[in-house]
Amino acid sequence: xxxxxxxxxxxxxxxxxxxxxxxxxxxxxxxxxxxxxxxxxxxxxxxxxxxxxxxxxxxxxxxxxxxxxxxxxxxxxxxxxxxxxxxxxxxxxxxxxxxxxxxxxxxxxxxxxxxxxxxxxxxxxxxxxxxxxxxxxxxxxxxxxxxxxxxxxxxxxxxxxxxxxxxxxxxxxxxxxxxxxxxxxxxxxxxxxxxxxxxxxxxxxxxxxxxxxxxxxxxxxxxxxxxxxxxxxxxxxxxxxxxxxxxxxxxxxxxxxxxxxxxxxxxxxxxxxxxxxxxxxxxxxxxxxxxxxxxxxxxxxxxxxxxxxxxxxxxxxxxxxxxxxxxxxxxxxxxxxxxxxxxxxxxxxxxxxxxxxxxxxxxxxxxxxxxxxxxxxxxxxxxxxxxxxxxxxxxxxxxxxxxxxxxxxxxxxxxxxxxxxxxxxxxxxxxxxxxxxxxxxxxxxxxxxxxxxxxxx
Amino acid sequence: xxxxxxxxxxxxxxxxxxxxxxxxxxxxxxxxxxxxxxxxxxxxxxxxxxxxxxxxxxxxxxxxxxxxxxxxxxxxxxxxxxxxxxxxxxxxxxxxxxxxxxxxxxxxxxxxxxxxxxxxxxxxxxxxxxxxxxxxxxxxxxxxxxxxxxxxxxxxxxxxxxxxxxxxxxxxxxxxxxxxxxxxxxxxxxxxxxxxxxxxxxxxxxxxxxxxxxxxxxxxxxxxxxxxxxxxxxxxxxxxxxxxxxxxxxxxxxxxxxxxxxxxxxxxxxxxxxxxxxxxxxxxxxxxxxxxxxxxxxxxxxxxxxxxxxxxxxxxxxxxxxxxxxxxxxxxxxxxxxxxxxxxxxxxxxxxxxxxxxxxxxxxxxxxxxxxxxxxxxxxxxxxxxxxxxxxxxxxxxxxxxxxxx
Amino acid sequence: xxxxxxxxxxxxxxxxxxxxxxxxxxxxxxxxxxxxxxxxxxxxxxxxxxxxxxxxxxxxxxxxxxxxx
Lengths: 457, 406, 69
Hints:
The complex is a heterotrimer of chains A (457), B (406) and C (69). Chain A has helices at residues 17-28, 120-123, 134-145, 158-169, 185-202, 307-321, 392-400; strands spanning 9-13, 34-39, 76-79, 83-87, 92-95, 100-102, 105-108, 112-114, 128-130, 151-154, 174-178, 206-209, 213-219, 222-228, 233-235, 238-241, 245-247, 259-260, 263-265, 271-273, 279-285, 290-294, 300-304, 336-341, 344-350, 357-364, 369-376, 379-386, 422-423, 438-440. Chain A has 457 residues and is an alpha/beta fold. Chain A has 3 domains: 9-50 and 66-113 and 246-327, FAD/NAD(P)-binding domain, CATH 3.50.50; 115-243, FAD/NAD(P)-binding domain, CATH 3.50.50; 356-423, Enolase-like, domain 1 (2-Layer Sandwich). In chain A, a hairpin with a 4-residue loop joins β26 and β27. In chain A, α1 packs parallel to α6 (307-321). Chain A is globular and about 60 Å long. With 406 residues, chain B is α+β, with helices and mostly antiparallel strands. Chain B has one domain: CATH 1.10.630.10. Chain B has helices at residues 6-11, 20-29, 44-51, 87-96, 112-126, 134-139, 141-151, 158-170, 181-205, 213-219, 229-242, 245-260, 262-270, 275-285, 318-321, 356-373, and strands spanning 31-33, 39-41, 56-57, 131-133, 292-297, 301-303, 306-308, 314-316, 377-379, 399-402. In chain B, a hairpin with a 5-residue loop joins β1 and β2 (39-41). In chain B, α8 packs antiparallel against α9 (181-205). Chain B is globular. Chain C has 69 residues and is an alpha+beta fold. In chain C, 22% of the residues lie in helices and 23% in strands. Chain C contains 2 helices and 4 strands; from the N terminus they run βαββαβ. In chain C, the strands form 2 sheets. A two-stranded antiparallel ribbon of chain C has the order 1-4. Chain C has a two-stranded antiparallel ribbon with strand order 2-3. Chain C has helices spanning 15-19, 43-52; strands at 2-5, 24-27, 31-34, 58-61. Chains A and C meet through α6, β24 and β25 of A and β1, β3 and β4 of C.
């Protein structure tokens, strides 16, 4: 580490949840030097989860989702100014306008953006949009306010499903097109995917699985409908492209860091790896853009698009940025996320995609209340609750202790012994429309996942 | 590792005023097996683990020996407090329908004005007194008036409610080794009379709603269907008793604690906005419910290096968990500004206190009105005489005097 | 005043909904929705909700970088 840990210059690239919490933690831990926070959006840090829920329902305006601060950070904020490059030898961040920001330590927290519709001409049609930013949400809420005859949602991951849920709640007709066998299957596997599909249909969604959208049709520059791979057509006035996220790493091309489409690789202490796999000591990574090894999941490199991971990893990264070697901490938080859609509160702990089997241990799909536990090679690796959140911390302790899978029977509202696990049926991400919100980038014998080679830089 | 005397000592009335040193002893044991075969747990993390463990039943009919400590009343089916999911969940949701979200989110908030008015009227009645019994003059009448109004019980029936409640609560006082048969019989009779009284009252509201919870329970069944008449009787007995009995203790313990901590009292007089956090700290420091005596493992449970066998009585000592130094810094200090106060005052998990929001605002308003409506006060005796129950623990009387010149 | 709720921590006890029903809402049986920007006349209720949250999941405070722009 160069210089005194609590002094010098720190630059944080990324002014969303992870960047903000990191900046606050730096000050809380006594960092007294110069702090600069760079963000590509002009808005102060805001919270994204409400954008696909309260905002689309018209209950909260997109500009009213600002994050509260935990403390003042006394920083120079460079908002509306994307970072364009990184010179690791000269220790400077290059901004889009050409300015160079020197640093002693750097935090990369540039997150992700929505994966765009692959055909730029079709993507430019009026009425075709993605949902990632507050501006996106504001536009989409406005389009929904206008009462379109039908909304087409392309991709049935969490974002796509939440959008469809908001549409139905507003009484709008909605078609959801998903290449995979069911909604949410990329994150939760087959059992809960089937529940999600049933729930969407029960709420009046025109759900089309196993199809792709082959083209978007325009009429005078306005979106008018789509062609599907099964030869069918959907007439709609709004198309929301919900194909998952792309990690914002292009600005790191040529930096020599292990950065690529799957994120920036770092160690458990959030220190970035360079392209040779050597850990740096002055560049740290946190949030959606990070790829890090997790001991509970066989040290696989995880990329998590999770709110809680952004907070927890930012805190660890910031702590380590101002701490000397032995005082540094590992980022060990158990991954967790939530989604609410079609009247269901879905919460997950662990990594459901890191599994070969799943078993329902409490409740049932019929009741729309359940807990499902996931296992990999005889160990509990994840649990998902549907309207049963109060039990989840029990299963988290099973994950943390590597408890045997399937767990023992005995839950008062369980199915009764013996529990019968079924294959978790997590598909290869390549067959999905929606990108999974957890990416495993190591190699599992039962899964066609490839080790990522870093060709960048 | 049988700790045959610990539970006896905890329930011994001699320790009612200060059970906390015994709780420290209990925490050291983590899981303490008693000579009668029951298990006591008093450490925070173990209690929360068990409260969120789906293999722990709240239904005492799951016990291998149904006549052990705290046996189930067998004349009426259990209320939802003594049932497991999915039945517990269904009954609790139906009872919640007229009380809170998602169906009636504004009910408790809308009571603010009423509760404040009742509290002010009671405080006004105390002003001319030199010596106040906080329990009889204030902490009892406030919540009982509120719960009766909320449920739709006529105010003139409060004395009957009081008598029944006292009898039912007394049956929870069983100390180990004591023959509980007579008290249980009386409690069963009181509970049955109360159930019939509330059933009749609800019947009168059918078709003639008066804006209260009983009216809503009989007239607005919701998509899942209504409670059956028997379920309605049993649930409303629970709501009526639990809806005021514990709040009496919370308000009384609150005033006792503030008078024992003049610096905290002064702080709250100066900064009334701290009252909500102070009430949370009271719920940690002197909770109205000291233990949950009705749990039973459905299978052998491994915890803290011990095994709690299937079917044994399992007693979770919440008040001990609240003072666990492994969870709370300086746990024996009363700190109205304590950060991250995830106390167990209302339990945790699916059986967490149904009426918690009501107890919270009643206590916030009660203490605020007492602090601002009366001059300087002091305890006339400390410790006060306690009610006999080690479970629902609180003073029977709390004598308070005005300080001259106030 | 801005708020954010850590919905990983939230277990649906809904104390906030009881105490500040115009800001917090139970959407379905268990999912919590809320208004991140607290109206001035709801601040006292929200403070009560923050204190009462059994899992201490509600963060309230000034908007981050309220001074920018």
